[in-house]
Amino acid sequence: MEDIKINKKRFERIISRTEITMAVERVASKINKDLKKKNPVFVVVLNGGFFFGSDLLKLIKTDCSYEFVKASSYKGAKTTGKVKFDLGFTESVKDRVVVIVEDIIDTGTTIEAIFKELKKVKPKQIKVASLLMKTEAYKKDIPIDYVGIKVPNRFLVGYGLDYDGHGRNLQHIYTMINSNKR
Ligand code: IMP
Ligand code: MG
């Protein structure tokens, strides 16, 4: 399969667009079952969750709405451990069932920070949907209700995920060659 180069690093394809589509469909059908008539509000975590959120929401059959939150903790291929974000809404999630939509759960630092912040605005319930999850790297207790694909603890790029701002637009998902650690 074809390798690609980003910022002088080589990446190989590990998840195809077809596999991504099937994972998105699986997550959507579970959410459609679980949250039927619950009028959920999806909170899409930018920038990475944009592609997943866009594809997922088009498959949601129950009445719903969505908001965005912008979070970042990565610099290059390493997490900084500090999450910065901006919750630009409050009224729209109060007393609602909220589904946080993430691209990937790694250590869990980001999702925990967003979860805690969202809790302050008193939603009825908070669920988490992530396209990808590095199960071995996860260190937190927050349940990840909907996981599209479990992935190894390696740095990934494509379909919303970036390497230093590059590669988000790729339709398949790639992993860095010669690096089993991020
Ligand atoms: P966590 O806070 O360690 O769970 O990291 C989660 C966030 O870091 C995700 O929302 C992604 O934006 C980013 N991230 C984690 N792993 C990767 C990766 O392999 N490639 C690109 N971004 C990643
Ligand atoms: Mg993210």
Structure description:
The protein has 182 residues and is an alpha/beta fold. It has helices spanning 17-34, 50-57, 109-119; strands at 3-6, 9-15, 41-46, 65-75, 78-86, 97-105, 125-133, 146-150, 156-157, 173-176. The strands form two sheets. It has a six-stranded mixed beta sheet, sandwiched between helices. The protein starts with a strand and ends in a 6-residue tail after the last strand. The model has no long low-confidence stretch (mean pLDDT 91). The protein binds inosinic acid and magnesium ion (MG). The site of magnesium ion has 5 residues, from strand 6.
Rg, rounded, reads 16 Å
List of distinct ligands in this structure: inosinic acid, magnesium ion
Class inferred from helices and paired strands: alpha/beta
Helix and strand run: EEHEHEEEHEEEE
- Spatial order of the strands in the main sheet? 5-4-3-6-7-8
Please mark out the parts with pLDDT under 50 across 5 or more consecutive residues, or reply none.
none
Fraction of residues in helix: 10-25%
Count of helices?
Answer: 3
N-to-C span? 22 Å
Q: Which range does the strand content fall in?
A: 35-45%
The averaged pLDDT comes out at 91
- Apparent shape: globular
How many strand units?
A: 10
Biggest β-sheet description: 6 strands, mixed
